[in-house]
């Protein structure tokens, strides 16, 4: 009888450990960017240092790992109303659902058309009296930055070989500050 109770407790305990709260995939920032796409829509746990927080709303935090060029955007959601700026420089562990935005040829074609409209609007051949049109060096600089980003994404889509380039982020559910 004692053996049966112990065996039942052992099996039941193992089942409890296999619930979703414990079965979430734990990833480093680097692992997230390498294999995160396969977890699209699933909960994962990621730990990283807070590099920044959205200054307007606090609804986004940006985490880095070993490679500071790999920056993970985490959106506030679930139990996270917002990220406080005091988190900057601290390590946090975030639980969230993986989001994948797929940049493909259609997306890039639509963006190119928008950039083309913005570029022609910024040229001096238009009258400066049109309402809503801003003709300034800043707008031309913004167009140049957007064209550069467009070109970079186009190369990444071509290089990826899947017909798209995934942009990964995390829809945050909860987070904890890592105590050292």
Concise overview:
It is built from 5 helices and 6 strands.
Q: What would you note in describing this structure?
A:
The chain is an alpha/beta fold and 180 residues long. The protein folds into two domains: 24-102 and 163-177, Nucleic acid-binding proteins (OB fold (Dihydrolipoamide Acetyltransferase, E2P), Beta Barrel), CATH 2.40.50.140; 104-160. Helices cover 38% and strands 29% of the residues. The protein has helices spanning 2-17, 20-23, 29-35, 105-121, 137-160, and strands spanning 25-28, 43-53, 60-64, 71-75, 91-104, 164-177. It has a five-stranded mixed barrel. Mean pLDDT is 82; it is low at 4-21 and 124-136.
Strand content: 25-35%
The CATH class designation of the largest domain is Mainly Beta
Helix content: 25-40%
What's the arrangement of strands in the largest beta sheet? 2-3-4-6-5
Structural class, from secondary structure content?
alpha/beta
Average predicted confidence as pLDDT: 82
Relevant CATH superfamily of the largest domain: Nucleic acid-binding proteins
Give the count of helical stretches: 5
Instruction: Assign the CATH architecture of the largest domain.
Output: Beta Barrel
| Largest sheet entry | 5 strands, mixed, barrel
> Separation of termini?
46 Å
Kindly provide the radius of gyration, computed on alpha-carbon positions and rounded to a whole number of angstroms. Answer: 23 Å
Q: How many domains in all?
A: 2
- CATH fold name of the largest domain: OB fold (Dihydrolipoamide Acetyltransferase, E2P)
Coarse morphology: globular
